[in-house]
Amino acid sequence: MATHHFTPSHFHPTIGSHEPVLRVAGGDSVVTSTLCAHGYDANETLVVQMSNPMTGPFYVEGAEPGDALAVVIERIEPDREYGWARTVVAPNVLDPDYVAASPPADNQALARWRVDSRAATVTLEEPSDTSLGRIRLPLAPMIGCMGVAPPYGQAISTATSGQHGGNMDYRGFCSGTTAYFPVFVPGALFQLGDCHALQGDGEIGGTGIEISCTVQFTVRIRKNAAVLWPGGENRHYIFTVGNARPLDQAVQHATTEMLRRLQREFKLDEAGARILLGQCVEYDVGNIFDPAYTMVCKIGRRALKSVGH
Amino acid sequence: MATHHFTPSHFHPTIGSHEPVLRVAGGDSVVTSTLCAHGYDANETLVVQMSNPMTGPFYVEGAEPGDALAVVIERIEPDREYGWARTVVAPNVLDPDYVAASPPADNQALARWRVDSRAATVTLEEPSDTSLGRIRLPLAPMIGCMGVAPPYGQAISTATSGQHGGNMDYRGFCSGTTAYFPVFVPGALFQLGDCHALQGDGEIGGTGIEISCTVQFTVRIRKNAAVLWPGGENRHYIFTVGNARPLDQAVQHATTEMLRRLQREFKLDEAGARILLGQCVEYDVGNIFDPAYTMVCKIGRRALKSVGH
Amino acid sequence: MATHHFTPSHFHPTIGSHEPVLRVAGGDSVVTSTLCAHGYDANETLVVQMSNPMTGPFYVEGAEPGDALAVVIERIEPDREYGWARTVVAPNVLDPDYVAASPPADNQALARWRVDSRAATVTLEEPSDTSLGRIRLPLAPMIGCMGVAPPYGQAISTATSGQHGGNMDYRGFCSGTTAYFPVFVPGALFQLGDCHALQGDGEIGGTGIEISCTVQFTVRIRKNAAVLWPGGENRHYIFTVGNARPLDQAVQHATTEMLRRLQREFKLDEAGARILLGQCVEYDVGNIFDPAYTMVCKIGRRALKSVGH
Amino acid sequence: MATHHFTPSHFHPTIGSHEPVLRVAGGDSVVTSTLCAHGYDANETLVVQMSNPMTGPFYVEGAEPGDALAVVIERIEPDREYGWARTVVAPNVLDPDYVAASPPADNQALARWRVDSRAATVTLEEPSDTSLGRIRLPLAPMIGCMGVAPPYGQAISTATSGQHGGNMDYRGFCSGTTAYFPVFVPGALFQLGDCHALQGDGEIGGTGIEISCTVQFTVRIRKNAAVLWPGGENRHYIFTVGNARPLDQAVQHATTEMLRRLQREFKLDEAGARILLGQCVEYDVGNIFDPAYTMVCKIGRRALKSVGH
User: Fold this and answer.
1) What would the mean pLDDT of D164-175 be, rounded to a whole number?
2) How far is D155 from chain A (nearest CA, A)?
3) Among A259, C19, D21, D123, which residue's CB has the most CB atoms within a 10 Å radius?
4) What's the mean per-residue pLDDT of chain B?
5) Per-window interface: D 178-217 vs B, CB < 8 A
């Protein structure tokens, strides 16, 4: 149960079977850092010119195809004072007629947010001339992009997501949540990056408040877990994740996976799983900006505890 | 500020410019009852053979096209002991390959839930042989279908939804919420029905726990509100609603309407509205079973209160 | 087998159970006229201020729910010299990023096309300053919107489409094609309008070349046809039509209906129908501008003739 | 202008920056062979166990990012007597309710088609007990999957498609067509495979008639072509290709690219391009089975020739 402190020096714009940067065992913890989505580090210095550069991959000894890799997210801490964000709403989440009637948007304009980790707030510093003034909001750090090497030697851009995880931008991937991923290659090859100090559902601005972070997590291997899609759990919920477009298809992946999970992991029969889902399912929206959208299917632990009584 | 007690005797399978059953004034309250989605009343007697029969329409004096009709939901009370629900998960929310590999589903099979309004619980009575046993869950009554007469003389089936409202099956349409609708015809012609004792997000079983109810609501006219889509507010959130397929398009309608609402009603400039949405928007999933799906775009009141400080 | 000459004086912006304007028998022909999509007649005089005004409904004696109403399109003849068209490409068929980066489009600007029925050409007269010059293209008249009264007393806007037909804007609905529709109410109540002198696939400009026309058609009743969606046939193909969003769902409706049709009408077994579709199906795109999109599923008569040999 | 005869010995299940198998110059022709989608060669011998194994990549000297690689398809000749095909219709192109009501489908069952290149026919041999009998259809060979290395070091599964091309399954990619692709890496790195003796639109069975082939093509470099998506031309049409889900988004990519192409390559102004598209655009459906769907946007050469006269 070692704790590894790893300082990355090399980053990837894809999630794939890249050379591992560190080998860890199941149960080990890793403390490492992530660049912001534009490749800047804790000193606001440009380290790599790529989008969503990934730290890793970490090779987890003993993880085999068919297993799941669980990642307990223990800490996500912004390691610099300023985060940035785009100032538009992405046109793909707006009515086409509204977009067509609007003047051209400035995709390059960036807001600058001051991040105060001690006070647990973010404060808008620029632009300073909007009606928001210097709005102050609660800090809520999360991991925007993480996943494991996909099968067939694929290397998938960190601009999108799939069964291997990727750029899911789910606010629920925060401290206190355990995420898991289907393992496709020996060692799983876990990568992470693209942390946000705060983000609305869907990352509809095309960014959250983008910032470099120190992240601590612990990896665990779930043998023969037979999961097809990422998922996870926290204090109140278990959840499954579907990544696809349109959102309808992401719903299909996440809901089908939950139907399987309730039977496999919680020993419900299919009839029971269906009835429970019908009256208790909840959905959260992950990324709806990228080529693949993310939908999260949840069941409350309270409902699960009521089963069979 | 009268309170009208209205016992319906006639029901509609469409929302349209039907003969009003009652004329009320802005500020008036109505106490009335709704049949369950199969047309059974408080005595479990079949009253009409139609899907989602609507009570109403109620003509609201002074409501004119261009106004919004606000409906303060004050009470939704199941008025019989048993509700029913389908036992499947709708195939449109499952992976096509999963559905294709499954034995044919029984769409006609119904679960029977005992509804205890005093204890505020629902208990599964039939089928009694699933792994759920006699699972007991918290009662959470809501209005599945409501809306106002659409424009151009349309009469729209209560199986679907649109700018006029309709079968949105949003769990947030519960007691304590104010819903509003764009007014298209003089008097607005408000109709409601299809209440549920409980329902998961999306109504993915094709039903919630379907039950007849006593409903109390108060109507208010918001003059020249210029809203294009339904919306509402509760203690913690303001929200807008988009109804369309795929979900992506429902997202577009709801998000665009929120962008407009933040400017019109909360006096944000467009730059501020965009930045706020990017970091604070939340989405809830309404119906994802019907021809049109429902997506709800929310902003927390707390975030709104932080604006400009 | 009468031929009725009917001059309309009243028009509808919805397809529904409106008062019939004429009662005809199966086998009868009707010669009538349609206004253009903005409500102008053969004299370019504004007759009604509505979108896609419909001529009809025609009550077909003996048509009952469960039957299909076949409409043999015999003639579509522009009855004035000029048609108009919008000059934009609808933003819903363009990349959101492209639309966002473009200056606001002018939805009101109209092109004016001279229609020469004798020469069978259309010629662009205005705007005269584009790179197209006075481009001349072949005339290809078609019916943009037609259908029968939907069930449950619905009245559905002619801006959209569904199982009853409606604004499908399929170029294949031209002279020489037989269209059919499922009958939902006694007499079927056929309505038609919105003819185009020419139109690209999808009506992606939001209009074809809009013009008033003289239309001749013959109605036939197909008893107990048990069709769920519109369809048709011409010299080379049989086809089925699905109307929904997204296009994927329109594909599902049309393909499923074709699978049923091949079995019901052409006596293929399901295995044969599936194999034939896999190697021989073709798709045409109808309207992709309206709330519901239209996809056409076709099988060539030549392939059908090869069956069983 | 050399003609290279290349016999592949190594195959890839992804399109990416793999080691080139041959270096050719612009203007050179290549005669090579492709395995069938299950990895069998001309002798019906299993060569590799992967889906859609690709021949290549071919490095084209002088091709640089920003160029387009044009591939003139000169010959696609089945090199064995039998092709195979799945016998189902994929559930994603059928109504979910229809699929749910059907008995489980057999995805593994394969039809066997005899391919007679001299007679230019395909004949169904197995199953022999369907209503199709030994149906005989015209041979129409096409390339199912081809493309160039995507950017950012991605390696993309041949089960899907994107801006780099991939598994587009467009019937128009046949002899006589020139396809082109945006070049993302030096040398373009062209790969091809997955040929079909015949296929319906959409590859809705999940396969065409899968067969190994001899393919001859000539490569040409179009310097600074600035294309974003694949496209092509044949005797009657020019076309652009969009790959995405849902089909609506594939339409957006293809239509936007055509709007750009008409301006860039055919010197239309934007107003002219829009008007021309509105009245003359045609769409073809490529793959609608894979994770990404394919839509083809076409303009007839005849319409283009009418421009400006």
Assistant:
1) 98
2) 5
3) A259
4) 97
5) none
